Amino acid sequence: MRDASDSTQGTSSRSGPGFNRRDFLKGSGAAVAASAVATAVEETVAQDKDKLPANVVPAKPVPVKLEINGKAHTVTVEPRVTLLDVLRNDLNLTGAKDVCTTTNCGACTVIIDGKPVLACARMAVECQGKKITTVEGLGDGKDVDDVVKCFVKHDATQCGYCTPGFVVATRAFLNSKPNATLEEIRKGLGGNLCRCGTYDGVAHAALECASKKGGK
Amino acid sequence: MAERKFSWPARSEATLIGKDIQRIDGVAKASGQAKYTADINTEGTLFARLLTSPHAAAKIKSIDVEQAKKMPGVRAIHLFKNEGDEIRWEGELLVAIAADRVELADDALKVVKVEYEELPFYVNEADIVRAAHADRTKGLGKNEKGDVDAALKTAAVVHRGYYGVSTISHMCLEPHGSHCQWDGDDLDVHLSTQNVSGTPGQFAEPLEIDASNVTVTSDYEGGGFGSKFAADEWGIACAKLSREAGKPVRLMLDRAAELKIAGTRPSGYADVTIAADSEGKIVAWDSVHWGTAGFGGGGVDVNQLPYPFDFENRRAAQIGISCNTGPNRAWRAPPHPQLCALTQTAMDDLAAKMKMGSYEFFEKNLAFALQDKGPVYAEQMKIAAKAIDWKAKWHPHGQGGKGPVKRGLGLALHRWGGGAGPCTCTVKVHQDGSVETFLGSQDIGTGTRTIIAITLAETFGLPLTGVKVNLGSSKYPQSGASGGSITVGGVSGANRRAAQTALWEIFDKVAEKYKLESADGLVAKGGDILKGKEKICTWKQACSLLGPMGLETKGESSQKTKDGLTSDQVGGVQMVDLSVDTETGLVRIHKFVCVQDCGLILDELTARSQVLGALIMGIAYSLS
Ligand code: FES
Ligand code: FES
């Protein structure tokens, strides 16, 4: 229940100027978006505002080379474009979902160099030279990943919109903790949200995989 | 020949029905192959983004998109509001821009100039006094039975309390939206919807085309919960942008807009007086309740309070509050969760005041349960109490521990209509023995596809892989919207009828071909046609008798179909054992028990998921 307060009545706007990630990244300059070189940028920019060093990306479309699910892709996008948008809109790899786009829900989880990463919080340019695995790239090409099988067996899906994010998060988690307990699984997958309420199925699916030493 | 009647197989004879059957689209969903509306990327698709009102109430003095039109990548602009229009809630749509890329559409939105004249707004849904002061209240009727005042005077115990539950947002993970593509006058819409059959007309009218020109498709839908029945103004806008740009357009609400404008469950707050005799039998209920359904000012239906009881003396009055907030939409079992919370928390407090246990108090009042469900609830309560160990764990309210962490038990009862929704389907049995069904229904995550496959496979004695389910297109035979609760009843009944009709025809042909006296006693099982234990022929041989056209049958369902395939009016009991840290507010649930009256369960695995999902959502309700 809410407390009555003056903010619920009046003439001023309830929401001030928005602060969102896209604005932030854009406002803070494309150079910062290419975060690996952020420190160097400050120094160089301070010296010469017009000339950017070779390792700084200009705020216009540039070719971005990505290795996704073992395949090389090149897209031409501005440095402010997220990995999630590139996956979904440029490469039609729509398994990663854009639910919150502000790092709150886990639906966009992918694996980068073995670690679970929220694709909505990564610029595509900064993922160059890394190994990206999306839900489409799980499994061995012939058969689906054991995590997928266990999700289906335990009905860890209803509408299914959160499910690929959970599957990838589970795969990454079990890779690092193949014998995880139920309690560890609940904590380890705590970054993913499901509106339909499939958490119990997810936990049991992950537990079954863990009982097979993480599955394959 | 024996009379042929539609019926379900006995549970002991069923090979699929009632078992744990995995979803037939489970792998597609879990492996990311399933394509939702938000995933549709046909060649050349543009991306539309939205400018929404930052003000809860305002008048638009001017709106200027000239500069936006010139921005790179911009292909079409749609104005939802014009100069002079009023804004009634934050998040109201102003402008949609379709551009080659998402970020270009965002850039263009930033140069749209809007001047507002801000107006007074009101958004407090809980404070009825302030709402009245702000002139935002409206009487929405009364509902009365017996003599409440007299009963209150003679009652042994009277309790008065204030209860309430706030508005919650549907928060579908796949936001509302569509992907629209034109081919001449024909419009293809991928719509995130619970209403495939009911939406083509909603697109056609404002676009001034025939409904027959519109195809609505929804193969997968990422959550609706009652909020996705309409084409919506943003759906129409998407189609218009696409028409203007000459390219396909995808327009999904962003997360903030989804929260603000795409559906809420109305709030309900009540001032309740409830009274009982010295035995604990409730003798009077007297309530005034209020809440908001957004600007329109509806709320929780006065005719359904108290719930699910009908006391001899009861009076309920409703006041709606108009808030400058987005409009409500149907929310799972409207408005039962609110009715349940308002009635049963008050009952529990009255029991505590009388120093009676909650269980005994509820049990005593089951005689007032609607639709004579008392005996069912009584049985369910017994089962639930055993599962949660109520007797051992119960202690009166207020005695939940000395430290800051308090532990206690709670219980609640509920009911719902359910039954069979409207559905028409066409079942085709091909000459080669393959089977498929067509229906303009949709699987919103409740396992609709799977239970249809189970129904057909069971009827024809085939494996699940032997049947194909075609749904999610408005071009298929009309089927009702899926609020959810009447979909399984509707689609399974219709498919069973169509399948049994087909099977009887096949049996007749088998009887004729194999010179049986009659088709009586024939069954389809394990891919064969049997008479008793004797195999007459294989399913494929039987189907080869159908000729090159195969066989096509129709099945129907509606609330009126009363042939015993579906039932309605379910009820259930839930009990919980939890702790609350009264210093930090942390709630820990130790055990949550649900005993639910379900009718025939087609798939136990997905039925269990529905119950678990409902419990988890119930936790979310009570924490919000
Ligand atoms: S979309 Fe990335 S965390 Fe929600
Ligand atoms: S299955 Fe619907 S949001 Fe998780």
**CATH class call of the largest domain in chain A:** Alpha Beta
CATH architecture term of the largest domain in chain A: Roll
The helix fraction of chain A, in percent, is 25-40%
- Classify the beta-strand content of chain B into a percent band: 25-35%
Biggest sheet of chain B: strands, sense, closure?
7 strands, mixed
* Element order of chain A: H for helix, E for strand: EHHHEEHEEEHHHH
Largest interface: A-B, 67 and 69 residues
Strand order in space, largest sheet of chain B: 3-5-1-14-11-12-13
> Average pLDDT across residues of chain A?
82
CATH homologous superfamily annotation of the largest domain in chain A? Beta-grasp domain
Offer a concise description of the structure.
The complex is a heterodimer of chains A (216) and B (624). Chain A has 216 residues and is α+β, with helices and mostly antiparallel strands.
Describe this protein's structure.
The complex is a heterodimer of chains A (about 220) and B (about 625). Chain A is α+β, with helices and mostly antiparallel strands and about 220 residues long. Chain A folds into two domains: about 55-140, Ubiquitin-like (UB roll), CATH 3.10.20; about 140-215, [2Fe-2S]-binding domain (DNA polymerase, domain 1, Orthogonal Bundle). Chain A contains eight helices and six strands. Chain A has helices at about 20-25, 30-35, 40-45, 85-90, 145-155, 165-175, 180-190, 200-210, and strands at about 10, 60-70, 70-75, 110, 115-120, 130-135. A five-stranded mixed β-sheet of chain A has the order 3-2-6-4-5, with helices on both faces. The longest helix of chain A is centred in the last third of the chain and has 14 residues, at about 165-175. Residues about 1-5 and about 10-45 of chain A have low confidence and may be disordered. Chain B is of the alpha+beta class and about 625 residues long. Chain B has three domains: about 10-35 and about 420-555, 2-Layer Sandwich (Aldehyde Oxidoreductase, domain 4), CATH 3.30.365; about 40-120 and about 170-260, 2-Layer Sandwich (Aldehyde Oxidoreductase, domain 4); about 370-415 and about 570-624, Aldehyde Oxidoreductase, domain 4, CATH 3.30.365.10. Chain B contains 16 helices and 28 strands. In chain B, the strands form seven sheets. A seven-stranded mixed β-sheet of chain B has the order 3-5-1-14-11-12-13, with helices on both faces. In chain B, strands 8-18-17-16-9 form a five-stranded mixed β-sheet, with helices on both faces. Chain B has a four-stranded mixed β-sheet with strand order 22-21-20-26. In chain B, β12, α6 (about 200-205) and β13 (about 215) form a beta-alpha-beta unit. In chain B, α6 crosses α7 and α13 (about 450-460) packs parallel to α14 (about 485-515). The longest helix of chain B has 27 residues, at about 485-515. Chain B is flat and about 80 Å long. The model of chain B has no long low-confidence stretch (mean pLDDT about 95). The chains are: A alpha+beta (about 220), B alpha+beta (about 625). At the A-B interface, β1, α4, α5, α6 and α8 of A face α1, α3, β7 and α16 of B. β1 (about 10) of chain A pairs antiparallel with β7 of chain B, so a sheet runs across the interface. Bound molecules: FE2/S2 (inorganic) cluster (FES) (2 copies). One FE2/S2 (inorganic) cluster sits at the interface of chains A and B.
